[in-house]
Design a protein that fits this description.
The chain is mainly alpha-helical and 175 residues long. The chain has one domain (3-134). 75% of the residues lie in helices and 0% in strands. It has 7 helices and no strands. α1 crosses α4 (63-98) and α3 crosses α4.
């Protein structure tokens, strides 16, 4: 990978982090588009596997960006894209706190929460669709996904059991 690619990736993530309303999950579709479709660094399936691994690793859910940076450009890529990811949120959080968002009943705070909630839900659903599309060509992946959704919606089963079951199915070669 060329040095320009590392800086381009960092710049792209910096811009995404500035608009990642509701967390990084809201911009996963664009991250997938950038690394899979635009740059061809990974296949859609590889991206889905990296995303799944990043979700089960202890720590923040944003580890996927660090992992992608590492895989594309070693430790320099991991460091640079992680800094790029955390900079906008840190600055915006400082500004929000300074502007009085520590009072959750303030009119501006209420307006922001009411206006952003539907958008965050829509962006989260688009992330789910992108992740689902990485396995949609394999019937057993689709079946496992639908079964997981049904279990989550209809039971109070701890999601850790579902993650463990998915890992076991993967080790058995089912997926």
């Amino acid at each position: 990978m060329q040095q320009d690619d590392i800086w381009g990736m960092a710049w792209h993530y910096l811009l995404l982090a500035a608009v990642a309303v509701g967390g990084l999950g809201s911009v996963i579709p664009d991250i997938q588009r950038y690394v899979v479709e635009q740059n061809g660094w990974f296949s859609a399936r590889q991206f889905g596997e990296i995303y799944a691994l990043a979700q089960v690793i202890p720590g923040p859910n944003v580890m996927i960006v660090t992992m992608l940076g590492w895989l594309v450009a070693s430790w320099q890529g991991a460091l640079l894209v992680t800094i790029a990811l955390f900079t906008p949120g840190s600055i915006l959080a400082a500004i929000a706190i300074r502007a009085g968002f520590h009072n959750p009943e303030a009119r501006l705070a209420l307006a922001v929460r009411k206006g952003l909630a539907p958008m965050v839900i829509g962006l989260s659903m688009s992330t789910a669709w992108i992740m689902f599309s990485t396995i949609s060509d394999e019937w057993h992946g689709v079946l496992i996904t639908l079964a997981t959704v049904a279990l989550v919606l209809r039971t109070r089963l701890n999601p850790l059991w579902l993650i463990g079951a998915g890992a076991a199915l993967g080790m058995l070669g089912v997926v």
